[in-house]
Amino acid sequence: MITENNFYDYDAKYISDKTQLIEVSKDNLQFRSIVDLSIKTFNALGCSGWCRIDILEDENFNLYVLEVNTVPGMTSHSCVPKSGGFDGLSYDSVVKKIIDASS
Which terminal residue of the chain has fewer beta carbons within 10 Å of its beta carbon, N or C? Predict the structure, then answer.
């Protein structure tokens, strides 16, 4: 996530069109580590359906789970629909996948 500010604050999250979600190659080892940590966290907490897991990475590339959001935002500025866009999914397709996963 790249913002104009030092923090991912209200303006960066909901207002600014300059906040960027950066796509990372799925072959990237750190990406795989983040996915693995996310799945382990999801399962360890007994989550079902879907959620957004916020992970921080320090300067030594260590990963830390910050929070699990079981009702993440779905606005045009939100991470979930934007992430789906990296896989070529429309907003409606993302919503359908969420509904299917929650059934």
Answer: C
Token representation of residue 67: 């929070």
Q: Where are the alpha helices (DSSP H) in the chain?
A: 10, 29-44, 79-86, 91-102
Q: Dihedral of the CA atoms 81, 87, 93, 97 (nearest 10)?
A: -90
Q: Is the dihedral of CA 34, 35, 38, 39 positive or negative?
A: negative
pLDDT top residue among 18 and 90 = 90
Q: For residues 6 and 11, what is the distance between their CA atoms, to the nearest angstrom?
A: 12
Domains of the chain: 25-102 (3.30.470.20)
